Amino acid sequence: YASNAIVYHKEGVAIGTGTGAKRSLLAEYYGMRNRLLVAWRLFPWTFPSVWLIGWLQVGRRALQRRPANAWIMAKVLCGLGRRPV
Length: 85
Prior knowledge:
By secondary structure, this protein is mostly helical. It has helices at about 25-40, 45-65, 65-75. The mean pLDDT is about 85.
């Protein structure tokens, strides 16, 4: 116990959930997977639009010349995605 301790928390540092080109493969994987799971479980009527928007994001990553990020997101959308190492 350290009553005088100060803890600084930088959101997203552990898996690289920064914005833009800083977003890691792990962050892309979990972001897409969790978005689909939440839509499926809690708002099933929105799942088709969430899935379609996911494909638009894949296209955006490809246009941004980030093929690895686009590939991992596409695999998740097709149900083939495994967590990147």
